[in-house]
Amino acid sequence: MLTNALLQAVNPLAAAPGPSTTGPAFPPGNFLDLINTALQNVSATQGAATVAQAGFAAGVPGATLSKALVANDRAQVAWNATVAVRNEVVSAYQSIMNMQF
């Protein structure tokens, strides 16, 4: 369940309403492709936040403070989810390395 929540935070398209599926939010493939796609989505979200902030600061028509703040919050949530996943992976790795056979 945590994985689905993190994937939805990282991939906005996964959170879109639609037909209910029991499979993953990403198409089947290797793990590296999944990680690369998730990191690209986080990077795109951060880029969108930067553009929204710069647009508001420059006074671009249609750029509002609320849009900039929402974009910034989305980027922050995506980054926090990425860090949480990294921490879990590191913790799992350390647990495996501490196992004695």
TrEMBL record:
<dbReference type="Pfam" id="PF02049">
    <property type="entry name" value="FliE"/>
</dbReference>
<keyword id="KW-0975">Bacterial flagellum</keyword>
<protein>
    <recommendedName>
        <fullName>Flagellar hook-basal body complex protein FliE</fullName>
    </recommendedName>
</protein>
<dbReference type="InterPro" id="IPR001624">
    <property type="entry name" value="FliE"/>
</dbReference>
<comment type="similarity">
    <text>Belongs to the FliE family.</text>
</comment>
